[in-house]
């Protein structure tokens, strides 16, 4: 979407009226650009001429409300400082939900998983070492996929209906009409021949999770494929779409089989249990995560999460603004160096800190106070 929410929502509203259909959910596969104010632009890795506010800030400020529930993952052109505040996922604005650096949620009974960022081998085994304020190297590395997040997703056992990645799974071009793809993007030919076009970690996840649908973006063209997992195995239908520009294929309406509504967003019990198990080894340096140190029992984690969800319900925590918004609070935004609103809030207002899910859900120290 590259921040152009107004155009996408207007197109969907028009389509809904003309086709006499009802859109239940909008999914965006990265480069969403949740830019709240001018300071956020400093964490956006784009050439300076593209560092514009676009329209997300209107939805963040409350001037507008998204007409459709929207779920998105991160790409390689994001306000990374804001998405880091919601590493585990959460509302970036009313009706607009970030799936996290890795995450799984339920929309009704439809299970949606996703992996933010793009694959770069030189950062894959690093921890999430970047810290605010980001330098020029940090804003180019923070969105690189990390082994830690992929490893958590590889633990998922229950069926996934839809999975999202920004860049394509490695080798997916072999399962669709590659000749048509090359007519659109002839410079892909060498990478396809060498087997390097795509995300190696995403390919591993597709083989493991075998979702019914896999949606991607990044390469700015429409491409579809069907992957069969093993002989007579399940199918994964792959679809990538173009960027949001006039005359481009940037939207596709898909009907997904599901139970009768209501279609509300809920936390996923299995995913929270996996997150709790591996949170004690969360890597915040360049060192590789040591998975053998994740000693919490997964069944005990699952029961812990189940009890929590029974007490408070499974709907995500409400949206809370954590930084000034464009225009009306412009002067206040300039009082914060390099967009470090989150550090300010955690220092001055510690009771606001939740990362959308209370820290003590995942901490090995059960005596931590619940922060909601």
TrEMBL record:
This is Lariat debranching enzyme C-terminal domain-containing protein. The lineage of its organism: Eukaryota, Viridiplantae, Streptophyta, Embryophyta, Tracheophyta. Belongs to the lariat debranching enzyme family. It is found in: Nucleus. Keywords: Hydrolase, Iron, Manganese, Metal-binding, mRNA processing, Nucleus, Zinc. The keyword Zinc applies. It comes from the Eukaryota. CDD domains: MPP_Dbr1_N (cd00844). Residues 227-361 form the Lariat debranching enzyme C-terminal domain. SUPFAM superfamilies: Metallo-dependent phosphatases. Its main location: nucleus. Its cofactor is Mn(2+); Fe(2+); Zn(2+).
């Amino acid at each position: 979407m590259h921040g152009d929410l107004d155009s996408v929502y207007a197109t969907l509203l028009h389509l809904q009226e003309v086709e006499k259909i009802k859109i239940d959910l909008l999914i965006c596969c990265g480069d969403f650009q949740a830019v709240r104010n001018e300071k956020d632009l400093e964490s956006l890795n784009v050439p300076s001429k593209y560092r514009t506010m676009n329209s997300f800030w209107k939805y963040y400020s409350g001037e507008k409300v998204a007409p459709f529930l929207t779920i998105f993952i991160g790409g390689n052109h994001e306000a990374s400082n804001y998405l880091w505040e919601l590493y585990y996922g959460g509302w970036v604005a009313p009706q607009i939900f970030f799936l996290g650096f890795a995450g799984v949620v339920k929309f009704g009974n439809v299970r949606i998983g996703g992996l933010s960022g793009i694959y770069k081998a030189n950062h894959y085994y690093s921890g999430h070492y970047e810290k605010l304020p980001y330098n020029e190297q940090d804003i180019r590395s923070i969105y690189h996929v990390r082994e830690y997040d992929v490893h958590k997703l590889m633990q998922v056992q229950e069926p996934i209906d839809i999975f999202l990645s920004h860049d394509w799974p490695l080798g997916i071009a072999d399962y669709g009409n590659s000749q048509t793809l090359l007519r659109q993007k002839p410079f892909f030919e060498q990478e396809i021949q060498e087997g390097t076009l795509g995300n190696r970690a995403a390919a591993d996840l597709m083989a493991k999770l075998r979702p019914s649908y896999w949606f991607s973006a990044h390469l700015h063209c429409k491409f579809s494929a069907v992957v069969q997992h093993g002989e007579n195995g399940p199918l994964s239908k792959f679809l990538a779409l173009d960027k949001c520009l006039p005359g481009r294929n940037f939207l596709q309406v898909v009907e997904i089989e599901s139970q009768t509504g209501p279609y509300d967003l809920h936390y996923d019990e299995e995913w929270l249990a996996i997150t709790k198990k591996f949170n004690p080894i969360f890597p915040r340096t360049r060192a590789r995560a040591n998975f053998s140190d994740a000693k919490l029992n997964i069944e005990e984690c699952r029961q812990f999460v189940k009890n929590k969800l029974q007490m408070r319900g499974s709907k995500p925590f409400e949206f809370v603004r954590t930084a000034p918004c464009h225009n009306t609070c412009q002067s206040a935004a300039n009082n914060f160096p390099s967009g470090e609103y989150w550090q300010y809030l955690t220092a001055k207002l510690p009771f606001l800190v939740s990362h959308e899910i209370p820290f003590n859900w995942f901490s090995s120290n059960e005596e931590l106070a619940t922060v909601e």
